[in-house]
Amino acid sequence: MPTPRKKIGLVILGGTVLSEESSDKNAVITKNDIKPWLSRMPEINIMADIEPVFILGEKDKEPGLNHWIKMGKIIADKMDEYDGFVVTHHVHSLLQASCALSFMLGNLSKPVVFTGSQIPPNLSKTRTTRKILKKYKGLGIKANLINALQIAIQGPSEVSIMFGNKLVRANQAHVTKSLSLNLFNAPTRAVLATIDFGIKISESARQIKRGAFKFKGLFDDNVSLANFYADQNIEFLKWVLEKKPSGVIIQSHDLDTTAELLKKSLPKNLSTPILIHTDTPFSDNDNSYFQIISNMTFEATLLKLKWVLGQTKNRKQIANLMRENVALELFEEGE
Amino acid sequence: MKIFFFGPKTDIKNYSNAYDQIIEQLTKAGLKIFSKTESDYVTPISEERMAEIQAAGESVLLHVDGIVIEATAPDPEIGYLLAHAILQKKPTLCLYQKGAQIKKTLSHLGQKIPAFIMVKPYEKSNLEGVIAEYVKLFGIDPEYSDVPNIKFTLRISQKISHYLHWKTHNTKNTKADFLRGMIQDIIDSDEKYKKYIVQKKNK
Known about the structure:
The complex is a heterodimer of chains A (335) and B (203). Chain A is of the alpha/beta class. In chain A, β10 (191-195) and β11 (199-201) form a beta hairpin. Chain A contains 11 helices and 16 strands. In chain A, the strands form 4 sheets. An 8-stranded mixed sheet of chain A has the order 2-1-3-5-6-7-10-11, sandwiched between helices. Chain A folds into 2 domains: 7-215, Rossmann fold (3-Layer(aba) Sandwich); 223-323, 3-Layer(aba) Sandwich (Rossmann fold). Chain A has helices spanning 34-39, 44-47, 65-77, 94-104, 127-135, 141-154, 203-206, 235-242, 255-265, 298-311, 315-323, and strands spanning 7-13, 49-56, 84-89, 105-106, 112-115, 159-163, 166-169, 174-175, 184-185, 191-195, 199-201, 214-215, 223-228, 247-252, 274-277, 291-293. In chain A, α3 crosses α4 (94-104) and α4 runs parallel beside α10. Chain B folds into 2 domains: 2-144, Rossmann fold, CATH 3.40.50; 158-202, no CATH class. Chain B has 8 helices and 6 strands. Chain B has helices at residues 12-28, 47-56, 76-88, 102-107, 127-135, 158-168, 175-189, 191-202, and strands spanning 2-6, 32-36, 41-42, 66-70, 92-96, 117-121. The interface between A and B is medium-sized, with 34 and 35 residues.
């Protein structure tokens, strides 16, 4: 019996450069470029019926929260229409975009896979870039897109990122330090699949149980960020608080000093929620000045706070939601 | 030549014999086969090399010379492999039996199927010929293949047998290896035969 063809929604927000050759002519700059761009990859039509949705072109400004909410709404509206979604995105803000989407799309029942090209448009071919391109063939989107489409057809129903030969949970992912086809990595249990000859879905991706799908697209973008080192002065934070942000995240590079400084200088039960993001595990979180976050990536913490602030302004509820594993964003013990 | 063989597991009971026959014929043609068993892949690549490929973020498909797919039973992985095959321009053989949908699947390409993708119907009786045709894509003419896959019975005297035993005893070569090597030397030095082959190819 013939199997019905899968229908995949392809949402475009940059990250479309096909190859290093004339990178600006091999990408989606405007909506009109989509047809010729797709025609340069006829092989993807063998896999599924692909329906593109244009949001941003390659040379448009870096996508932001408004674009991501628009993307979330489109995906939510078309959830019943498609079997899965692939999002092509500029690589610089891809991690934030995919985190935002993971909180917006609650109890997903279909895969949403982010991918893109590591080649920027208007690539200047210096000797160094030529060397890199020679060493790492496949930095363009083609192979990533084929893999991402296959994940959208048969992969885990969650927001994930596909680059190189690794599929990772978006809200636990981080950018790899060295140049590699695997641009993103994640803790072991957040690696959802690997690719050798085909796609090998990991056990951790198979075991997730879900409720009904819910779209929650409200965010509060008024969140301030501060970087605190050992010799940090509290005056900067006081100046930030005067601007009345809805929330503050402090990235602490010396948790004990930062905590002590905040406890000494801030009033108890300040109405603005303050989170301290740190990589130090086992941190004491029991105080009324701030909440310490050590079990999430920085990008997940930032986008989760913006999302939580869109759901509630109640400080206790904010703290509770930040502790809750809303979209599988919390690292598991031992990771 | 390293070939990845894929046969869907969806209807494995009906097709496992066909898969075995294809792998057997490919091996006979002198190709090294990567294939998927019930749980994992069987590969002629060392674990160390596989780890390197994984760490570099590459697909193992980049490291094979060709792909063979038994495409009778529908499977989403067929379209995926074909897409990679076309992207990487890998010589690919798509085998199917009566009733398969593969030609319809390939029609979605919307253009002529590239020459390096062979789509062939087959049954047990013509499988060898179809694979021989595929092997030609790698520039190997099966008629002149070096792979010792033809069984040949040869009666020899006690004296020759004694000599062969003496010659190959405590060496890594078998008696058959020794005889094949001798014949190969004769072929290599036979100018008349070489001329004949050139003339035959030019015809």
